[in-house]
């Protein structure tokens, strides 16, 4: 039975998903990493220790209309998640013209139905900006493939540069384009020579986009490059089977099994067509180069489940090559899984532990914890935390308080260092903190953070008093974090 593709049904689906995700994004409290990225938005810089600056720019942009709350922090990410479909649909049209309009629809709905996009659309991390700009890159390369003019190389370079400004792993699909150019140039020398001016222009535009990130790293001891590059230093080949298993199961979960089957079969078909079809070859190169790197990394170290999302736009484009016979079931299953995750995060109908319930572990109970801390605080006390996630969370839920970060990472931030006197240190018992910066440290209580009687974490409270003779290096690691205005703090049933 042939499925008819009206121009409306998939647009209705995308609008519905975007609307639901806007609501969920406005209700769910920020996770520790999101609260940390929110602080980046108040300390603009060309780079940060953990990632390039794009996620901070998006958060700041969303706060302008949305406010300093969960909705504002996530607003641009939700809209970008829907906007990916614009680029992907047109990329399929140019790269795989034989699939027709229906192929573009298949690619869009497949990507939107993945659990990865369901999560990344409501939880702002660098993964959403990098997927957005990589989708733009695929669209621009489709225009190049369609012969729309060498000027599209400039658009491709711009998108590639912004993707690298979002997350460093964007360099892997860009490397796939380099491999494709090499292969195509060897096969069709005249075509390769013709593309040289456009390629050079695109590389120059991309280099211009990433220059601020390189400049920031050069001024800060290459801190971000060293941190991310240092991941390759860990090597435990004896655990390769475990790491590879985690990689596979993690991707099956983030894609959902039905959509994963379409993604994999789409890549098989692309490889079959790659020899005679430049568009198929391009998508294969942009997918396989990162995939091979992740598999190689998993041979000796853990690959975080979210890292491979950089290849999801290309996987979705490849799925356009697959017939739609079981597609509606795969998409329906993916949407259902995403909906169940939202329901659990919002209402917690299943009594899961913090080990299996990510929303409980990361988002639950921060306001109640803040109330418990304030009950012990004296007028003029600062509130400090021994890890960046806890400090960032407290900075979002304690308006009017002086919330302090105390870690070496804070020395890289342009934030006030005017912290003195007495305060309360909040620390998970499994963590430690530098006691040398205090005159006295006295434990005063232990509090639990959680939801509906389920404990996510226990923290110890210490009454502390800062030394007055701190060195310049010690003082540089102690910063005052920006907290919301009292009338703009996000209120929710959480």
TrEMBL record:
Keywords: Cell membrane, Glycosyltransferase, Membrane, Transferase, Transmembrane, Transmembrane helix. GO terms for biological process: lipopolysaccharide biosynthetic process. It is a multi-pass membrane protein. Residues 50-216 form the Glycosyltransferase RgtA/B/C/D-like domain. Pfam families: PMT_2. It is found in: Cell membrane. The chain crosses the membrane at residues 71-92, 104-124, 168-186, 198-218, 252-271, 278-299, 305-324, 331-352. GO terms for molecular function: pentosyltransferase activity. The keyword Glycosyltransferase applies. GO terms for cellular component: plasma membrane. It comes from the Bacteria. InterPro entries: LipidA_mod_glycosyltrf_83 (IPR050297), RgtA/B/C-like (IPR038731). PANTHER family: MANNOSYLTRANSFERASE YKCB-RELATED, MEMBRANE PROTEIN. This is Glycosyl transferase.
